[in-house]
What does this fold into?
Amino acid sequence: MPDVKYSKEHEWIILEGDEATIGITKHATEMLGDIVFTELPEKGSNVEKDGTAGVVESTKAASDVYTPVSGEVIDINQTIVDDPSKINEDPEGAAWFFKLKLKDKSEMDSLMNKEEYDKFAKENAS
Amino acid sequence: MEVKKTSLNGLHQKYGAKLVEFAGYEMPIQYKDGIVQEHKFTRSSSGIFDVSHMGQLFISGTENLTKDLERIFPANLENLNLNQSKYSFLMNNEGGIYDDLIITKIEKGYLIILNAACKYNDYEIIKSKLKDKYEIKLDETLSLVAIQGPEAKVILSKIIPGCNDLKFMNGNNFIFEDTNIYITRSGYTGEDGFEISIKNEKAEDFVEKLIEKGSKMIGLGARDTLRLEAGLCLYGNDLDTKTSPIEANLKWAIPKNRINSEYPGSDVLKKQIENGVKRLRVGIKPETRVIARGETKIFNDNNQQIGKITSGTFGPSVERSIAMGYVENNYSSIDTKVFLEVRGKKVIANVCNLPFYKKNHIKGEINA
It folds into this structure.
């Protein structure tokens, strides 16, 4: 089972080889509320670590989605664009956002493991 | 200033509300179900809204009060029946709106329901215009509770028999546990429903009874998506002191026989009715799911800005992105193609009729 890592911007990332799958955490969806709109990066585009790579909007507000690592977008999850409520249903499973071909594996080093993230999320929950 | 709490604050917490500050009050933005579910529950069943932060202004007086109030508001108060309500405006001399409000004729005079953020300012304006001739009171010993939705009449009737006899935009006195309450058939969701004015100390018990009968508390988040689907204005977003009721496409609330009367802004309104306005509030449907929130710029196909969005959200019942805003008059006709600038990209949208969602009110007054 590959490790799941987490970012301070509430994204999760799973690395398999040099391919990373990225989504937003359950904690993030709970803070956002009902998600009603999703925008994802274009397939084939390059995204930079900590740069914006999409948008989610809830009934309340819009939030940027950041990418915790750099790379080329090799796939996007069209299902969550067509029906954004899927993100609230299964944020850390079926509702992944995009897949990257990773540029620099060392970028993974600064990310948190589950235990660290849970602690971080709890401290930052308002 | 300290954040105020309504008499239902304990209930909000009990039912898991996310509380936020709104107009100086700690109010529930949503409960555990979330905005979309709360919205849909109101449309399919019934929802309870704590609107106690709104102002309940009582003005009592006799013969001259109606005439004096007609010098302040454009509503036709002379023809108002006892317990009948009218939607109206408090305006400045330029026809800009200080507040949109509901005036109800009651036994001792009038009850005016004011927006929370405007109520103290409204009170001062109205009080000074009436020059201390009448007793005027912003009653904060009373709570205001709305129950809205197709089941509202069924549920409320179980606690308050006879409430279903009320016609739309009409009210009356009823008794709840030996206490007088005042109920009007009105609301701000596009659904049939009631607003109940009740003593603070009785409000919690009353709401718990409604919940026992199958209703649920609904937060301000769903209140906003419900009113926007119904095409109704939110003061501060869609209406302000620089916007007239004519520009806001609320001409229906200015009775014909009051166009030549004198009240603040009346000369401006008269000119606007005769000559038209430069900009007009319209409904706007973006072609994609993208949400165009307030302040989003509206462009024509020549890339010239022609207006801006004042409210925008995702409508859970109409299942699409919806918005309203002001555009230059020659872009206000239905199906005009416009472009909305969202996060640097232009999104195609169409001007449309309001409301986005329509249900028939209980008869009694023409549904505006």
In short: Chain A touches chain B through 14 residues (CB under 8 Å). The longest helix of chain A spans residues 114-124. The radius of gyration of chain A is 13 Å. Chain A has a mean pLDDT of 94.
